[in-house]
Amino acid sequence: SVLFLDQQRRVGELGSRLATLEAASASTAELRRVWARLERDPRLSADMYPPVSSAQAAASVQAAAQRLFSDAGVAVRSVQARDVLEDGPVRRVGVRLVVAGTTPQINRALQRIAAAQPVLMITGAEIASARDTRFEIDWSQPQDLQATLDLYAFAREEQP
Predict the structure, then answer these.
(1) Cβ(68)–Cβ(112) under 8 Å?
(2) Which of 89, 114, 115, 125 is the most exposed place for a label (fewest CB within 10 A)?
(3) Are 70 and 43 in contact (CB under 8 A)?
(4) In terms of Cα–Cα distance, which of 159, 158, 130 is closest to 56?
(5) Interatomic CA distance for residues 155 and 56, integer angstroms
(6) Which has the higher per-residue pLDDT, 76 or 50?
(7) Are 145 and 109 in contact (CB under 8 A)?
């Protein structure tokens, strides 16, 4: 039906925007460039979380992500810590969130992720309609979505 195709188009557009953010943030070349700059002098970077334990850094990323989504009006359904990757004086810490909100709320949250300081990166995401798509949907209204996102940030290593 036309409504189903319109729904698929809109979900596809949102997925496309998210894919663009993912591609930009997860670019291997860009991450290597940033990593090299931070390894030269991690004290100069305002883009990273301060030197604390891995558990504290993960808790900081989790709190920032939850606050960012809540401030955008998005309900945080679950949060799970991701593995910490350590390499030299820099660590990558992250969380997986399952969130629910309307299309405008999810868009606001994605914009806040792009502007976050310290920097947050989306390395994986799935966004789907929260409604049963077997029935007719009024696409003139904002749609309810559910998203699963992996967010990461860099943290400096604790100094001995």
Answers:
(1) yes
(2) 115
(3) no
(4) 158
(5) 10
(6) 76
(7) no
* CB crowding 128-151: b at 16 or more within 10 Å, else e: ebeeeeeeebeeeeebebbbbbbb
Distances (CA, A) of 21 to 15, 16, 53, 54, 151: 10, 9, 29, 26, 12
Q: How far apart are CA 76 and CA 24, in angstroms?
A: 24
Overall size of the chain counted in residues: 160
pLDDT in tens, 115-144: 888 888 888 888 887 776 666 666 666 678
d(CA 125, CA 150): 6
In order, the DSSP letters of 96-113 are EEEEEEEHHHHHHHHHHH
Burial class of 76 by CB neighbour count within 10 A (0 to 12, 13 to 18, 19+): middle
Task: Identify the band that residue 100 occupies on the pLDDT scale cut at 50, 70 and 90.
Answer: very high
